[in-house]
Specification:
This protein is α+β, with helices and mostly antiparallel strands and 149 residues long. It folds into two domains: 57 residues, no CATH class; 80 residues, PH-domain like. The chain is 45% helix and 32% strand. The chain contains four helices and seven strands. Strands 1-2-3-4 form a four-stranded antiparallel sheet. A three-stranded antiparallel sheet has the order 5-6-7, with helices on one face. Strand 5 and strand 6 form a beta hairpin. Helix 1 runs antiparallel to helix 3. The two termini are 19 Å apart. Keywords: Membrane, Transmembrane, Transmembrane helix.
Length: 149
């Protein structure tokens, strides 16, 4: 199956990279700035646990930062962090990215737990990406319109 369109948010990738660098870098700088007698108080288990927590934070941030949306001949795949959604073209009611929306949305014929039509956010197409995001949303909508029948 060939991919017709694959999108990731540049703003999210940049922000995720900066946040990850700060999350990892600031404790290192703080550690170096601490007096030697205080650093000696930290035992191996403490350092391992701190390292694990920092890496978990970075993994979570980067998982969200690499959210994507892919379109192929069969349908649409939305990956928002660790959650993946797959929709066939005929299941999609509309693709929106209106002025003031933080990201694009896909409305489907499926129902949520309350029985309301499912509306799925597409974190890969975000307002901070500006004209690029509007163009990608328009391209995604155009692909959907050509495949929905």
């Amino acid at each position: 199956m060939s991919t017709l369109l694959r999108v990731r948010s540049r703003a999210m990738l940049i922000t995720g990279s900066i946040v990850s660098a700060l999350v990892l870098g600031s404790p290192i700088v703080t550690w170096i700035a601490l007096p030697g007698e205080i650093r000696k108080l930290a035992v191996g288990v403490d350092l391992v646990m701190i390292g694990f927590i920092l890496l978990a934070i970075v993994a979570t941030v980067m998982l969200l930062a690499t959210s994507s949306v892919s379109a192929d001949e069969e349908g649409l795949t939305i990956v928002n962090g660790p959650v993946r959604h797959r929709y066939a073209w005929h299941e999609i009611v509309n693709i929106h990215f209106r002025e003031g929306d933080p990201w694009a949305y896909v409305s489907t014929f499926r129902s949520d737990r309350d029985g309301d039509p499912e509306r799925r956010m597409v974190m890969a197409i975000q307002a901070p990406d500006g004209d690029r995001a509007r163009l990608q949303a328009a391209r995604l909508r155009q692909i959907w319109m050509s495949h929905r029948l």
